[in-house]
Amino acid sequence: MQHITSSGYNIYFNDDCYSYLQALLAPGSYSNIFIIADENTSQHCLPNFLAQLATELPIEIIEFDAGEINKTIETCIQVWHALTDMGADRKSLVINVGGGVLTDLGGFAASTFKRGMDFINVPTTLLAMVDASVGGKTGIDLGVLKNQIGVINNPVAVLIDSQYLETLPAAEMRSGLAEMLKHGLIEDEKYWAQFSNLDGLTTNDLDSLIYRSVQIKNEVVMQDPTEKGLRKILNFGHTLGHAIESYFLESPLKTTLLHGEAIAIGMILEAHISVAKNLLPQAEYIQIKEVIHSIFPKVEFTPQDIDIVIGLLIHDKKNEAGKVQFVLLERIGHAVINKEAENQLIFNAFGDYQN
């Protein structure tokens, strides 16, 4: 599978990942290697990765607890202390082996330690492969507010090996599908259509779908690396999705949602708002709703839940001059940015989602 070229780095796939690593880690290239993992990837993915890592360089492993709840400044401080105690310097290499939480936090820790170390992302979840590890976004949450602190800083490379997906629970695989669906909805109608029937999906099919998803995200990022305009389309479903994810993470009365589960809800809601704003045809909205509901179970919201979610929208990173900015759809395969929506439209969207 041909590598994908991005801004100053490449994205490699499957066997090519390890050929690249072997060449990169030639004697004299780096002083030592620090692998950052969580307890899940340490158990299920790290043994295979280490077996492929042909190098004489000293290797240290830094592990933290898994989950969005640990994507915090406190965890980042622990990583910085570990790097310090183990003798990391600016010629050290950080390799992040894990899902989106880990690549976000590990990339941020590497980007800020001693004002910047080289890092590589080795995504091990579908979500991280098609979204979090690509595009240079790193960061941590501020309380329950998603990705409020961070920098855009590209890795040395991204290494996508689909065999790690064999270790994932079904819910985590579904979570990754949400971002792939999003890429089709904002950029490629034909790609979206491939998700209308996932029965009989083979490993080769999945590799091709992952590859195209990464292509779509990379093409958008290359045109707008710092999210001044076009890159905002990658946030379709995320304005409401992030608010829902934050609320369910914070509330003791709610079951925490995976990122993709929250974004799936957000995409339905924001597609409904697109119809209400006379942008998206009703028939296309119905198709979007049916496909997403066929993959993701429905979540119940009370009127109080909706009020709280709307209150959290003010913290969205796309906002300008205190106004909430949505990414909406004009049609499947074409998104538009910087659209506002009245609270009543949001309530109506929740009502239709639950019907």
TrEMBL record:
An example molecular function term from Gene Ontology annotations: 3-dehydroquinate synthase activity
Domain (3-dehydroquinate synthase N-terminal): residue spans on this chain: 63-174
3-dehydroquinate synthase C-terminal domain ranges (all copies): 176-319
Keywords: Cobalt, Lyase, Metal-binding, NAD, Nucleotide-binding, Zinc
Task performed by this protein: Catalyzes the conversion of 3-deoxy-D-arabino-heptulosonate 7-phosphate (DAHP) to dehydroquinate (DHQ).
NCBIfam families registered for this protein in UniProt: aroB (TIGR01357)
Protein's recorded name: 3-dehydroquinate synthase
Organism: Flavobacterium rivuli WB 3.3-2 = DSM 21788
